[in-house]
Amino acid sequence: MENHATEILLRWIVLVPLLGAALNGLLNRRLPRQAAGLLACAAVGVSFVMSVVVFLRLTNMPVEARFVSDTVATWMSLGSFRVDLAFAMDPLSGVMALVVTGVGFLIHIYSLGYMAHDAGFQRFFTYLNLFIFAMMTLVLGENLLMLFVGWEGVGLCSYLLIAFWFTDEANAAAGKKAFIVNRVGDFGFLLGIFLIGVHLLPHMDGSEGVFSFQTMQHHVNFLAPAATAICLLLFVGATGKSAQIPLYIWLPDAMAGPTPVSALIHAATMVTAGVYMVARMNFLFVLTPTAMAVVAAIGVATAFFASTIALTQNDIKKVLAYSTVSQLGYMMLACGVGAFAAGIFHVMTHAFFKALLFLGSGSVIHAMSNEQDMRVMGGLRKKLPVTFWTFLAGTFAIAGVFPLAGFFSKDEILWKTFSSAGGGVLPWVIGFLAAGMTAFYMMRLVVLTFFGQNRATPEVQSHIHESPWTMTMPLVILAVLSVVGGWIGWPHFMGGANWFEAWLEPVFASAHGAAAHGAHDVVQAAGHGAAAVHETAHAAGHDTTMEWILAGASLLWGLLGLALGYFVYMKKTDVAESVRNLGGGWLHRILLNKYYVDEAYDGAFIRPGFAFSKNVLWKGIDAGLIDGLLVNGSALTVAIFGSVIRIFQNGMIRFYAWSFTIGVTVYVLYLSFSG
Amino acid sequence: MNDILIPQLGSQVGPLLPYLIVAGGGLLIMLVDAFVRTLKKDHLSYLAMFVLIGAVVVQIIGDQSDTQLLNGMMITSDFTRFFNFLFCGIGVMTIIFATGVYDREGDYRPEFYPLILFTILGMMVLAAANDLMTLFLGLETMSLATYILVGGVRGNIRSSEAGFKYLILGGFSSAFLLMGMALLYGFAGGTGFNAIATALDAGEIDVLLVGLGSALMLVGFGFKVAMVPFHMWTPDVYDGAPAYVTGFMATAIKAAGFAILVRFAILMQPQLAFAWFPVLSVFAVLTMFTGNLVALAQNNIKRMLAWSSIAHAGYLLLGVLAMISPATGGSDMMMRAKEIGISSGAAILFYLVGYSLMNLAAFGLVNILSHNKGEEGEDINRYAGLSRTRPMAAASMAVAMLSLAGIPPFVGFMGKFYLFEAVVRAGLIPLAILGVINSLISVYYYLRVIVVMYMKPAEEDSYHGTEWVSVVTSSVLILLVIYMGVQPQAFYQAAARVFLGITF
Amino acid sequence: MSLITDHILTWVTFVPLLGSLALLTVVRKDSLARVFALAVALIDFVLSLHLWVHYDDKAGGFQFVEKVAWLWDGKINYHLGMDGISLVLVMLTTFLGPIIILSTWNAVQDRVREFLAFLLFLQTAMLGTFFARDMLLFYVFWEAMLIPMYFIIGIWGGQRRIYAAVKFFIFTMVGSVFMLVGILYLFFQAGSMDLADFMQVPLEHNAQLWLFAAFFLAFAIKVPVFPLHTWLPDAHVEAPTAGSVVLAGVLLKMGTYGMLRFAMPLFPDGVTFFAPTISILAVIGIIYGALVAMVQPDVKKLVAYSSVSHLGFVVLGLFSLTSLGIAGGIFTMLAHGLSTGALFLLVGVIYERRHTREISDFGGLAHQMPVFATFFMIATLASIGLPGMAGFIGEFMILFGTFSSTTLVSAKLMAILAATGVVLGAIYMLWMYQRVFLGKLNNEKNKGLPDLSVREVVVLLPIMVFIFWLGVRPGLILDRVETSIAQVLEPLNATLLHQENAPAHHTLIDMETGRPITSMRQESK
Amino acid sequence: MEVTLTHYLVLAAAVFLTGMVGFIVRRNAIVMMMCVELMLSSVNIVFAAFSRHHGDAGGHVFVLMNFAVAAAEAAIGLAILVEIFRRRRTVNVDDLKALME
Amino acid sequence: MEGFLFWFLGTLMFLGGVMMVTQRSAVVGAVWLAFSFICAAGIFALLNAPFLAVMQILVYAGAIMVLFLFVIMMLQGPVLEGERKPLNKGLLPLIAIPPLAVVLMVVGWIKNNGTRHFAQAVEPGFGSAEWVSRLLLGKYLLAFELISIVLLVAIIGALAIGKGERKLPWK
Asked: What's the pTM?
């Protein structure tokens, strides 16, 4: 009975935010601001509590049976094809649920203050709740299609929230861009789903959902032949949602939205959905080294590439955005090398410190009366103490300073990259360099913002003030989390238990099980997967020295980066200048303009597409060919025939008589010749 | 060498009564018009209608036997009775419409009433003909009277011209018809259809006499039903004649023409296959296309309807083709021949009735909507906004147009359905396809009238007519059009019964 | 009561006609006429609910059958019947009926009675088309539909209304006349106009191809399938709002319905022969429609072209020859009817206020009319197939069905190409939304536009509700049509099975059991 | 030499054609009507010839009918022609241009 | 003898027709036509149709042609001078097509089938006035009655058209 109750909770975890959104949305202006805000926060809070309850229940269950599911109804059903409207929680989704609702709750609180004076207060919280609903559907969805529902839902919410201040054309455009780019990714995602369905449907009898994760895992051997294709297609979707190359372009623009949105959606939760999905489908990914390699490559490339751009940006949020992209690259890299646990671990820690950083920057922007350009900031250390210290914590965390959260997750990822069969030295090196750059540009950010003299107009300066408690409180909490958050993953070689990995073990172990009795052509893939796990599991046992060395190296490297950043932008600013002008400054220009990728897309696809559609398809084929030539043409031909015949109707009796006789003659001749 | 047979006449008066009534009525009206001084406007029309209705009534209560009268000069059968109904009905409608504009300057024509009665008499005789001579005389009675109806509008040069054109070309064509008859007579050695039938059954067919003869007769009939290339008089004459006469010609005379065509086709089965079928199929297709294509270009509604009537003649000719189509081989050849004969014949008759209804409705409205003075009188654009000034008339006109275009649920569609069904049944699918293509083309110009009436704003000189009798009459016809479109069964069966007794 | 329930189909079909006659004769005042027409439509809807309740979808087949001899003593009958496929479309029709009438409350001020009469007449014709089981009856209703629509466009339409009306009429006629010849041929073969007897006619290969072509042309023009679509944008743009809604909501479905009901089961050879070509055309239509919609300056025209794209999906689904694809096709018919209907209603709302539909005349409306913007957003999302809304289910099943089809040549490629339509859909709809509703409200004329009135909300709300409801509980529809689909396509399966590339399980025959899926459904219970 | 049926038929044909051609070439309405009369009389000859050929009376009666009909037609035609002449002062059919496309 | 008469009358009849057609003056044309009709009467006579021959002269050459001449005289000038401009020579080939075609056909047919003789000799009294009139009132009574109607119609028509405007009696 009791567990039934907890199962029922699952649907409410998802629905309560929806109710909140509905109430807020319908009542809208009629609802006083405080009420609206509290309603929203309460909704998220409740679902956070419920998530905790269910999560605790999981912890009480035996390791292999940690799975709670709640089937609401049959969604689609036609013959052997069936999809359920169902939710489920296992260790993986449990973690995600906690992160989403937890961080989400904090950011709701924060928004109370941040949006206090905004006209669309109620609308904002409607969207936020809606987002939590969608995100929870994504996380708790029991099958791939439910996940897809959430997937599209969060896309919609991000669209709505990016374009929240829609009166500015740019914001609207950014929102649209985000949605469409995501759609491109979803295109691949859908095809992946189809491919799965095609291989599973024959073996269904309508008693179980086709796309249910359990079903897929159970019949994984039917999927094995197409594993590579499926995984790559799914990964296309992931690149869209998690802003990987080549579809990352929407994320920087997405910063047009209110800062809490950037924190919640475009840093902490939604963008990690891709990683979550890959991890979720790990049992399939491990069967295909190719796909894994691609994932890893894309991930590490993104990590490096984005951080180079971040070096030169002047908009405080843009810097954070690109850093987010590169961090996401790390997560993908982890998944790519089979270290799903590490990936998810980084998802969590990153959620903490990146949310923190964004909220901090929000607090700064708030103080600077909506100024985002770092070049006119500076010297805020005194004026915004809380913001400064929490921000600093976040910076060290992301830079991977021991013993902050970032250190553990990032270090583990790098180590796995180095050690596991899927990885190697090259990816490690690249990731390592990226880590250094991360530290550097974060320090640059901090220095430009908080140190030195303030470069803003006196009028602005006069308004600078520390944010209200509703905003600082979440900052503090998140700061604490980003300090201690990593400890649950304290690695073995430091004598920790790496509880986090152990917790996720059942989810990812099952993958290898499936791989083991998969078709024989994927055996060595399975072997590799097994090897990876084996290694992670017993790393503590033998040669931890290498691990120590790498950990130390990355720590030093991080510190070095921080120091360099501080040095360059605090003491010797001319150095920065000279670097910028390196080689005629072309390098800097390229980085500043993000490698001109947007322009490239624009020139390559968008403009030609429109021109083609307008001039060739519409004006040319539709109006010209079909309507003009075929339709009106045939009509004209008929008319012409008519008027030609009219000519004979000339009113001359004698001509009539003549044609009459001609008719007769023809007839007579025909008769005489036909016999 | 048989004797004078006045004594025998008594036995045959019964079946002859309708004919006698119409003839006598014509004479009576003539005398009344001549000698009764105190005539009021509608008296003559009442009288004429009374005569026609009387003829119909007598027809209904009279004997329904199939007999040959007057030494086989004519017959009475369901066939003739059917057409007598049709002709008399059309006559009544025409008289109503004519009376509607009776007091218009130039349109007062007391001679109209006797003449139309004689025209109808001629048609009735034509349909009942069982002898080349009867056929010819019926045809000429009809034609001569029509020449006068067309050309007799005093003070209207267009009418006179139309009349003369019709007359002189009619004479020209009847010369061909007569030549054909002469040759056929030469083949059969007798003018009676019975004689011809026996001669045909007797075997060896003289190709020249039969083939050329029936060909020339087809030419003659073709002239009457406006078959391309013998159609060219049609638009001009329809245009020049007063609208009510045009309506009468477009319906009654066409019906008469097809009556005799069908009659003759049945008579000559299956020898016509070689003499008529190939050329007639070409002519039929030409007729459909010419009619529809030229109608597209018309601005004058009477000319438009004239051309459309040519097109409809084309559809009907398809029916005739189905009737005479060389029956496909096989054991059940005779069976199929009969089946096809009945279905196509019934289809033709049904179509004639439906076509007459909708065309009469249209012409009745044209008759009052357009004062018959010169071209601009019938310019379609003068109907602009009619749907506001005279909704009833506009609605009736619209339905008539849709029905003519063959859109369900109106009789026009049902007629086409039966007709094309017969054509397909006879295995002439290409012809059926050409037929539907034509009804497609026709849609455009029929819709145009509706467009003008309903979708164009009214102009000040749009329409000035107050005559309501015609409008009501047309509306009644329209109700029939709809009813027959929804419940055609009874009418079709009546039409089919006509052919049950006939051997094909 | 039994007087009604025994002839329920007749009642449902002809109640609107009675209403329109009453409008033309008895009811004289415009205000009264509106109420009256609305009442009639509502009554019809209630009557149709009886069908919804009493239709037994497990049994399938044709129910509520009525058969009265009409012509040729029983060879041609007044024969009505309804199966699941008809049912859902009929419900759509009767559901939209009152909404449409309510939507014209203020829009139409000129000749109100005629307008409403035509609307009701149109409804009768449409319902009859869905119910007809006798080919001639079907054809009569099918053609009769043209008349009211022609007048609605031509009299109450926009600038180029006459051109549009005539174009609509002629285009549709072009197809149907050839179908008529085909019907006549079959009638000659079968000796009866009854669909069931048509099924029995053994036709040799070539005849099937020709007949299929004749039938398909008629339906393809109605759908419309590329490249026969050019009448649609004109008709939509010129038609008054109500006209556009009926057109998009129901009329276009006639084509796809006809394919499913007649063209496909009657001529299996034709289907298998033409399916590749048709699916290519469908895919072209999807992409082409989307691309052209993208560059339209006129909102209504944009929606019109989006219809071309959506119905491309439907056609693709039908000719994927998989139960999934076909079910998805039917579902999309509904979804499209709702979402596009809603879109046209919304465009009508703004047109009523501003008398323009040029996208460039708008911008920032969301600030001025938030409620309107919200409704429009929902409709937009529904039409781009956001999960959780009706559109998604249909598109997903269609694409999945196509993707998994083994009978269709290069099915996977088709599905992939078609899936790009989903992306394009998002592009043109959102771009339009952005230009109309977002940004600054800088056009003076748009300042002070009133937001949706209560009536307009009442008009739109039911549609919105159903958009979501169907999105979450598609079973509502799928359970209804499942059996019927299998039954409609039995003959098709027979042929497909006889071909060497026999279809796999997930077309309608299950591979293991060899039984049609319907039976398997039972066993899964 | 003996005169056969064919001779008469050929004669009739020749006369018929003469009338036909005349009808087409002449523009004088009255002459055209006379041409029609010519054609009719050629038909009469055919009737008479066949009547003789079969020894059947029908032909003769038919010829008589043709006389009457020809007369009637001539009467009406000339009447209308006079009516036209009143207004147009011409009987040239090419001048009858009131009715044409 | 018969042969000579046939050729003589036939040729003259034909020539009369040709002359009628080719004459520019209507009056002269009418006279030629009358001449041709008279020859036709002779042909009738050759065909054992004395009654027809007589009627031909009375009705045709007599009544009808007189009617024509009367009208021609009435209309005077323009008719006498006939067509103003001569026939367009360019059209001749077009006009010649039908008759030539027919001629060719007839010739060809005669070539193939040769000539046909009259079937039987005629019985006495064939074609006599009494013989014909018996038929008219006997077998062909209907035709006789109908022809009266035809003539009646002609009378009505001539009157109606000939008479000028008619006033509405009730106005």
From this structure: 0.90
